[in-house]
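As the work plan foresaw, our protein records have gained a structure token line. A representative record is set out beneath this paragraph:
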Amino acid sequence: MARCLINSLVPVAVRPETEDELLIKKWKWKVKSVQKENMERHSLWCDIELKLAVARTMKDEEGFYYPHNLDFRRRAYPMHSYLIRLGSDLCHGILEIALRVVLLESQAYAG
């Protein structure tokens, strides 16, 4: 089975056995860039895992509704951001739109 590259950590380089400040400085920069890469990978993995967890929870449902908020310009925004059709390609690929319901002008304004 192939290993997930998102969840795997980039190994941190070993500190050089020298007193040369230039080599130490290069090593520190390399360690910082590796730590940044590892944090970004972990963040991406957590985001994907959260979206997949929501999808696993909803997979046996026949259908579900997304509550939306309307702003003053009458633009509709989903109330939660985990698994929405406006999200990433992963979200869009997981969702299957079953039925679109068009609101009438009188139904879209709640004021």
Observations:
- The radius of gyration is 23 Å.
